[in-house]
Hints:
Blueprint: H1 2-9, H2 26-32, E1 37-49, H3 53-61, H4 66-70, H5 74-84, E2 94-106
Antiparallel strand pairs: 1-2
Helix pairs in contact: 1-5
Amino acid sequence: MTREILERHLVNVPPGPHPNSRHDPFEEILRRSSFPRIEKIERIYETRMRPTIESILGYEYTISYVLTRLGANSWAFEREARAALSWVKSVGEVSVIRRDEALIGRR
């Protein structure tokens, strides 16, 4: 739900890790560097959590470029997301699937 709201607020903002796509994808940067042997590690697991509106919004903000891309629209995104997530206050502990990944460059 928050992802759809976020995407609506980013619809007219250039895609990419930075608003102006200032650099190549990390894999390409590593291939050209002294660390061209690339390994991607991914871990998918289930965990339990008690969600809050703040933790859900915080999760979206952990993506480094989100606040930069939202700019002045961050207040509008938060207002809409908080209204849509008002039901979260009554939810107890839930099971969620998490995905962690790392990109490693080796010599």
